Fold:
Amino acid sequence: ALIKGEKFDLVVQKATELGVHRIVPLLTRHAVIGTYSPQRLERWRRIALEAAKQSRRTRLVHVEEPQRVLEVLGKVVAPALFCAEREGVSLREIAARWSDAPPHRLTVFVGPEGGWADEEIQAARKAGAALLSLGPRILRTETAGLVVLSLAQFLWGDL
Structure:
């Protein structure tokens, strides 16, 4: 989810270093984002380009304009992980469920600083996303995304 201030810059940089192919800033009911501007999108794209160069990526990351989470969930193709601190299960449990057909591609949804709204969680369920919990601690949005990406790479390699 889109987060306030310069925090999303860090998410773009580190997610690029970790190998994501696409970043879609999500507009959610509880997001605390301030004002979005096209200049921010250009900044994120520059950050992604620099991070790609630094990490010697051969493929550029596509940073999209912010989109509403319910619209994105309506188009998502499984497998998808939806970080839901209140209702999710461990990544170990999800990996066991997917062991017969490990993902070759993965969509990850990380919530806003204010948490997901109930209708967003229901939409994730309806879309077939696996609801993921990262344990008993509530992580910052920028931390949660990097944890999930790192664990997914550990379990399934580059996706």
